Amino acid sequence: MKKDMICISCPLGCPLSVEMDESGKVLSVSGNSCKRGEQYAIDECTNPVRMLTTTIRVHGGALPMIPVKTSAPIPKGKMMECMQVINRMALDAPIRMGEVIICNICDTGVDIIATNEL
Amino acid sequence: MLKYDLVVIGGGPAGLAAALKAKELGVDKILILERSTTLGGILRQCIHTGFGLHHFGEELSGPEYAYRFIKDVEKTDIEIKVDTMVTDILTGNTVIATNNVDGLMEIQATAIILAMGCRERPRGALEIPGSRASGIMTAGTAQKYVNIEGYMPGKKIVILGSGDIGLIMARRMTLEGAKVEMVCELMPYSGGLTRNIVQCLDDLNIPLKLSCTVIQTHGIERLEGVTIANVDENRKPIPGTEQYIECDTLMLSVGLIPENELTRNAGIMIDPITGGAIVDENRQTSRPGIFACGNVLQVHDLVDYVTQESYTAGEGAAKYIQTKAKNRRPKYIPVCPEGGARYVVPQNISSDADSDVKLYFRVRDVYKNGRITVTNGDTVLYSKKKPKLTPGEMEYVTVKVEDIKKLDKKLPIIVKVEG
Ligand SMILES: Cc1cc2nc3c(=O)[nH]c(=O)nc-3n(C[C@H](O)[C@H](O)[C@H](O)COP(=O)(O)OP(=O)(O)OC[C@H]3O[C@@H](n4cnc5c(N)ncnc54)[C@H](O)[C@@H]3O)c2cc1C
Ligand code: SF4
Known about the structure:
The complex is a heterodimer. By secondary structure, chain A is α+β, with helices and mostly antiparallel strands. Chain A has helices at 35-46, 79-87, and strands at residues 2-6, 15-20, 26-30, 49-50, 53-59, 65-70, 74-75, 90-92, 100-102, 112-114. In chain A, the strands form three sheets. Chain A has a five-stranded mixed β-sheet with strand order 8-5-6-10-9. Chain A has a three-stranded antiparallel β-sheet with strand order 1-2-3, covered by helices on one side. A two-stranded antiparallel sheet of chain A has the order 4-7. The A-B interface holds A 5-11, 13, 15, 50-55, 57, 63-65, 67, 69, 76, 79-80, 83, 87, 97, 115-117 and B 44, 47-50, 53-54, 59-61, 63-64, 67, 146-150, 172, 175-177, 193-195, 198-199, 203, 301-302, 387-388, 393.
């Protein structure tokens, strides 16, 4: 079985071709320019994941919002659930770059971290 | 009058990288002028990840990418003036700037680097008939509202134009609970990166309507809806295909324009296609000692390339300051686009260039297996096929220094793309 997809791990967007057996096991990946492309193809066929980036309200800072991201990609289907948890939060300044804001969000094993200082 | 070796106009990623490179190469007195309250430029509002993979080998968000350069600048003795607007560049490389603290300043610079970035094409440039209802804005403005100021500009959204900022905003608004009805694109292909179509539209089931445009807006105080229609190959609406879409917000993502009022007023030659200055391989403009880099020179899709280009400009400025290259007019070989190549930057190469030169260009159309060739007279400097070339993605080819030495200096270098 063959599946074509675009690698979204970086803006180059290499066109990937994935060879799978009947059980969905990935046999080979081609078209990738780097190692990350191979990992992306395997993930996309078994458990598609995405980075989540958003903002959280902050009191007492120079600006009202701090940008945050997941420390690693999370399962695609969990995005909205994570957004609901994040949108219930409000923080107080100061916040450091890279500070962990939420630990293990929605049991994904992934943290929400600040991507700026405020 | 203030005196500096190098004045950098704009404190976005381009200005920061150019200043850092010049400092690293030993330029003494450097000043960065930024009109906003903080450094970082447009990256401050680009909270999504995807920056820095080429430059840092990791995937950073916009603010994280900018942060690294800001911290590096803070470690040096580069001087910074924020909340400072540059209003003019006079002859003799004198920069006129104003702020609340210093008032009107006259700054004498040996070299100047232009790094003012770009702005979005506004609604006026589109001429969509309809009322002046609120709820019509550029995608970048919406991005600023949501990511920096923290409020949602609307609930039911139509996006016109499939540029990257529009695609990124389609996802951002959906994550925040808005309904993005569709993205309409006038052209038969998207202007954004493929990865953004996949992760911003396909992932969230947002339809992308190609060869389609907004022909009318409705609503008096607040936008109530838009009429869309399919367009023919001449981009004219096809009668009978009109469709009314209810929405309270129309976001425009229809292209970026380099911010070159200063450049024009300074009498610097502008390339009508890129909208940026005409430069040589050091990113020097037609005015000796004035360099340009980043989005003010050509609209980039990847900030990593902005950084590269800015290092080149910083290096060029350092060389100019240190070797008094001002006493020497370089002999230029013009670089011209042909066929499917829409433009090439740099537009000139010095005949005595002493390192490899990368030629950046964009294509007019989508090419499957398009061939890129670079020639000088009968000499072929480069020839290669690429599986896919699209106008949304900048390409480059490298011309080797040993080839530049052998060029026929009376003939231009031609960059050609064929289907
Ligand atoms: C809304 C928007 C979203 C974008 N999103 C992405 C993205 O997701 N990914 C990506 O790779 N690229 C994105 N880009 C492109 C992005 O602009 C570049 O990657 C990068 O930020 C360009 O850097 P720059 O330094 O050339 O310009 P900018 O970041 O725009 O910085 C220019 C700076 O110059 C200052 N300035 C301008 N005029 C003056 C003056 N007269 N006096 C003093 N200061 C002045 C401005 O205030 C600004 O801080 C986006 C662009 C826009 C407009
Ligand atoms: S394969 Fe590597 S280079 Fe190609 S898009 Fe994926 S991450 Fe980028």
